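Hi V.,

You were right to ask for the full record rather than a summary. Here it is.
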Amino acid sequence: MEEWRVLLLKYIHMRERLPDIDTVKYTDKWLAKLYLQYGSVEEALKSHLEPIPYSVAHFHRAINKMGLVRSAGRHVSFPETLHFFREQALAPGTPLESLYKNMPPSFQVSIATLHRIYKLIEENTVRRYASAVLISPEYNPNEVLLANELTGNSRYGKRVGDVCVPMSFSKKNETPRDSVLRVLQHEFSASMAVSGKLSTHSEFVDNIIPKNLNPFMYLNIIDVRVAVYSIRLPLELCNLDACSSFRVTEHRFETLGSVLSEPKNLRLGIVEMVTCYEDLLMGRQSEAPVQQTSLVNLALVKL
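Predicted structure:
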């Protein structure tokens, strides 16, 4: 009974921190909000508390009309996988099976899948793609935007409050503009995405995402290659009042030094991303994009 009460309080706390985006029910904007909330059309139709009186095809047409970049995911949970292999790196010599037995009952990734991913790590093979965006105020490139994970629970193997940068899965051959815009729509401002200001058709987006934008870094984390971008936020958005997301909360700017001085609760890969960005900014690294393997991958290969 006590465990049930704790879970209920956590759920209520999470709901209180979700963005309050005002839309009229059954409109395209309402469907766009549900899409950003659930991550896919199919998940929205399956999981929303009230029946949604539209077909999958109609829902997809509405998403296209609203200018949302389609989600790009994986069949297994990336946060779960990150959590498992972070634990493996912290316990060198521990067989995967022994570590697997200590995972929570709701842990969904199979041991066979983990063995397959571990083999891919050893071979340095990439199976998935993602994009991370280091967002700085236009007046201060020495700061980057951070946020806190909102969906922490045993299923995902991560804690509410883990510090992250805006990041999302990507498609292999899509344009940098689509990759970065997906991240902005889901993790920077869902409200601006629903309003149309962060639509694929918006001139405002062209002012934020440079036409010649390319990654300054490629970072391999587990079996995912993350393209890391840097953009400058216009002055009008630097107060962060427009920030809203169903994935992360507590958006704020922090200096590069403060990010690197307390790395304990950072999501995997952020230390490498911020360090590389600082090196390029300070002239310690001149060539871009930088190709790098994450610290957790290096630790696992040494086991």
